[in-house]
Design a protein that fits this description.
Elements (H helix, E strand, L loop, with lengths): L1 E12 L5 H6 L1 E11 L2 H6 L8 H12 L6 H15 L5 E9 L9 E9 L1
Antiparallel strand pairs: 1-2, 2-3, 3-4
Helix pairs in contact: 3-4
């Protein structure tokens, strides 16, 4: 069993319950991880035997470009797409971090983490 991790994918997206968030947008940082049997990739040195992290980030960026009211909702969409693309994965997870969310208090970020296993 191995784990592939992508750290700090940065997007500018338009998620939120307030109309201002949908108009102005916000910066997001996303960490993605997947687990599976990558023994063939270890032996064969072939992209076909692993998860292409370029495709992993492309899926994430595409879903982040579709506005949602809640980061929980966009996170689930991303996880579902990852597991659909790579059915051999045993686990997929991600953390979506909204930087400087519009709140009454000064907060660096708000984040949501989701993980799904098969």
């Amino acid at each position: 069993m191995g784990r592939i991790t992508v750290k700090n994918l940065i997007t500018y997206s338009y998620h939120g319950c307030y109309s201002e968030e949908n108009e102005i947008g916000s910066k997001y940082k996303i960490d993605i991880w997947v687990e599976g049997d990558f023994e063939s990739a270890e032996k064969n040195d072939s992209l076909e035997n692993t998860v292409d992290y370029v495709a992993l980030t492309d899926i994430t960026a595409k879903e982040m470009s579709i506005p949602s009211k809640l980061i929980e909702h966009v996170a689930k969409r991303i996880i579902d797409k990852i597991l659909l693309k790579w059915p051999e994965l045993k686990l997929a997870g991600l953390t979506v971090k909204k930087i400087s969310p519009p709140m009454n208090q000064n907060v660096h970020s708000v984040e949501y983490t989701i993980e799904k296993t098969r």
